[in-house]
Structure formats: C-alpha cells, structure tokens
Queue: 2 jobs
Job 1
Amino acid sequence: MSTTKNIAIIAHVDHGKTTLVDKILHYCQLFRENEKTGDLILDNNDLERERGITIVSKNVSVTYKDTKINIIDTPGHADFGGEVERVLNMADGVLLLVDAFEGPMPQTRFVLQKALSLGLKPCVVINKVDKENCTPEEVHEKVFDLMYELGAEEWQLDFPVVYGSAKHNWMSEDWKKPTETIEPLLEMVLEHIPEFKPAEGNTQMLITSLDYSSFTGRIAIGRLQRGSLKEGQPIILVKRDG
C-alpha cells in the first residue's frame, strides 16, 4: 500500500452523508456481490435508523488505486457536536457534503469552522442534484461565501467540487452531465487530500475514542502523531501522574 489518506465526511442532518459512505463501500468492493448488507451500513443501531441521523462517529477503510482511504463518518446533528470535534483531529481533509436544494445549513457552518481552524483541506460534494428546483451552481457560490466568512485561508478557498446523487450512485465534475459511477469523487480525494506523515521521535498517539471487543477487550482508536507502531507491538500507557 503506497499511501494512506484520512477523510472525515461532514454535513447537515439528512443531506445524504451516510448513504454516500455506503455507496463508496460498495464501489470499493468492501462486500462481496452476493453478500447482503442492507442500506445505511454505518447507521447500524436502532436509534440511528429510527431518527435517520448518525450519532456516534464510525470509521471504515477502503482501497482505491493502491491508496488506503480511511473514511470517518461524523455526526451531522448539533446535539453531537463534541463528537465531530474529536474525530476531525484524526483527519487529513474533509468532504463537505451539501444539499443542492437547501445549501449550507447551520450545522454545516459549525463543523466547517472547526475543520478550517484545524487547517484541513476541504473538498466539496454537492449532493441531490436530481432534486426538482435545485440550484447547484448557486449552492457552490454559497459554500465559497461561507468559507470566506469563516476566515478560510486562500488555499482552502481554492477547493475542488463534484456534483451528483448519492442515492442514484453517481458523481460528476459537471452536474448537467451525470455519470454512472462515483469514481470522480474518489479521484478528487486522491488528488487533493494530503497524506499525513507522523513526526520523528518517541511514539505519541492521540486517542479520540474507545471501543470494546469480546475477543480483544478494550480498543483505543486514534491517530499516531509521532514515531511508529507495528502490529503486535506491546506498548505502555503512561498517565499524567506517571
């Protein structure tokens, strides 16, 4: 595997984020053709399905053109803003998903400001361009105005954009020219999301969340900031008081 890229997908509730992640998983053949996965793979608990929102951030890895892409699916609802902030610290860049009809919404503003302040590269996905009376080009301008208002750097304002419909499984650089694949989105990730390389020195890892497995026990999830780790390597957790 030559490179690894970590991306967080951020969006307002119901703008199609979790559906888009599911389409990426299927496109990268994370599941066999005869394997029944059901829709909305990442919204896998009852409350999330009932409310139609992502509550707890989840991450999954796919491989595209010899690049490992770690996708972090973040909550898009204001009630879970703290979770968004934690996972953005693990990302190299963000996919900002915006509805082609509604445009940037309040929660989009909140999460985008966090991403920009962390120096992350934004890539914009304008979704649901098949909606009646949608205005993709106007929404593109509104996203630019919002980033400018939030104090984005010049290099952040020069963001790439793709248009499409996650529901109908296509993305394109021109919303008037639908394709039959989401490949333009993955190409955008490869071209514009930078690869993170840990600094040299003693091993240092930022833990952002904890999980549990009946097989391995407690699992720490985070990002290696310095040094290196190898599979099977024993490590020691040092607390503040030693």
Note: The chain has a mean pLDDT of 82.
Job 2
Amino acid sequence: MADLITPGYRFATVTSDDHRGLIYIAAFLTFTYSTLTFLTRCAIKWKVFGFDDWATCVAQTTSIIQFALLLVSLTAGLGRNFDLLSNDEYSRMSTTQYSNQIVLYLSLGLSKCAAVMLIQRLFTRDAKKFWLICNIVVALMVVWTLLVVFMVSVGCSPRSTAPPTEAEICPGIFARYQIVAITDALTDIILILVPAYLVWQLQMGTALKMQVIAVFAFRLPLIPLSFLALTSWKRSLHSNNPGVDRTTAILFQQSELCFSLIAGTVPCLKSFIRSFDTGSGVKVGYTSNGYGSSGYNRGLSYRMQSLNTAGSAVRSHNEDEGNVKVSTKPFTSGGHGRARASSISNVTTVEYITPKPKEVDAMSHGSQDELFIRRDVQWEVRSENA
C-alpha cells in the first residue's frame, strides 16, 4: 500500500508537530455548510426579508471575517509546535488568533439574536405579550454578546491567550472561558424554551406543537459543543505542546459556530413556516367568546351591515387585508316544543382575519408571503323575526 502513495507536494501534512491539516478541513467544511445554508435562506425569503434575515446577514459576514482570520493564523503557524515557529510567525499567529476569538463569539452572539428575531416575527404585532418576551430576550442576547467579546479579550495580550508556557497564561482567562461556556449553554436553553412556551399558548394540536418545538430544539447539540471546546482548550493550556493540542478546541469552536448559524435557518424552511398559516383555519385557530373578544385583544367590535332576509348573500373582501367576510342565510327555529314555520331567522357568520400591521418592514411590505402566525376569529350572530 505504501507504494501507491506517490511523493510530492502536500497542502498540509498532519504530523505529531503539525495539525494544521485538521483545522483546514474543519474550517472549509463548516464555512461551506454555513454559507450554503445562508444562501438557501436568502433564496427562500428573498421577497420577505426582515430584521431576522438582516441579523443573519451580519452574523454570516462576521463568520466570514473570522474564517479569513483563521486562515491567516494557520498560515502563520496555528496548529503547529510553537518551538518550530520564528518570533515573527508566532507574533502574527497569536495576534490573528486573538482577533479570531473576538469575531467568532461576535458571530455566535449575532446568530442567537437572529434566532430570537425569527421567533418574534412568527407572531403578529397584536400579540403584545409575545412581542415583549421576545424583545427582552433579544436585549439579553445583545448584552451577552458584548460581555463575551470583552471577557475573551480585555486585559489579556495576544501572547497570553496562546501561551507557549504555563507561566505566560493570562491570569483568570480560564475562569472567563468557564463563564462564557456556561452562559452560552444557558442562552441556547432559553432559545429553546421561549418558542416552546409561546407555541404552547396557541390553540394548536399537540402533535403540531411538538413538531414546532422539535425544530427549535435543533440547537441542543450546541450545549455539549460549548463545553467540549472549553475542556479541550483547558488541556492545551497545560500541555507540553500547546500549539498542537489547541487544535481540538478550535475544531469544536468552528463546529459550534457553524451549527448555530444553521440552526437559525432550519425554522425558515417553507414547509415549516406554512404550518403556521391559519388562512384555512385548520391548524392554528382561536375561538371568540360571547362578547366577541379572543386571543390577545379584548373588546373588539365591528359594525354589521343589514341582513338580506330574502335569501342568502355573501360579502367578502381580501382576507389578507383583514376585512370582514359576512355570510347570511335563513334559519328556521322552533320554540316551546312546537315548530313555527313562519318564524325565520337570519344567521350571520362573520369571519375576521387579523390584519397585517401597517408598519411592516420596508423590505417585506406588500409581499403575499409575509411570515406571521395569523389569528382567525369567527362569530355567529343569530337574529329571529317573531
């Protein structure tokens, strides 16, 4: 078998003192997967771009920047034995890797913000409670992103974050990364629990609710990836060959970022979003009470038009504009145990589709494919003529 391996140039050879090849493979694979997923999202939502999509664009852009920094760091000697690097190579490697860590966590945080914005976008703006919860979570993710970026960088030099010896380790850097990993896992748990809570409040079938929750639970593997990166990074700090042993931590970090970007796009698939379309009134519905109020708003009232007692009539307007559909038909009622053929009543069925908000996003205004969980409210009004 050895004779079949022809000698020649190798882009990256994996040896005991050089693991750059492994990082190259992981970097290009994760970059390819996340980019293809992002392009798929753009194709699906091209006409309905919202804040969640723009946040994803920024997250993907920062991911590309960290990918470029990683390649520069690899060229300078990342993944190699530090003893084999010149002072200039080591300085360039540590500086670019230091910058890579900052941009990586920035991209990770932005992907979380985009995930919350998508959850928020699925609910119409009249769901005040849901929107308030999502706004609080978005603010929490923004604060987490900024804090993490500072924690992995402030007070530490590039050399102290990639130290050749234990004596040069930045004081307290491991405790910082522990906090980062724990809070990272907690934010992912929040991103799973929030849509689960919001969806559970809807009048949907249990099977459909579980389907929705399962899609958002796609983020669960991010939790072990975060802790695996932490433990691997800790081992590399106290290793005899920290340059090579840090490879495993970098592989887990790249996998986590890629998976986070993909997890934010999975719920955008059309087959999934269409399950929220209540235009048919089958999968997601709300039933009004006796006073004509339902769901999140109370005390709604509508002026009815005169009924046509001569027969049945249907008045319908554009449902997407939130107008009222009125259907009238004769109704024969009985009273006190005996039929009264002359007593005719008109049955009026009023179906009101909650209108889309007027202040829609500029990029999605006028689109017929806006992605909202809409609310169907139906009243039945009976009037009897004695």
Note: The first strand starts at residue 313 and ends at 315.
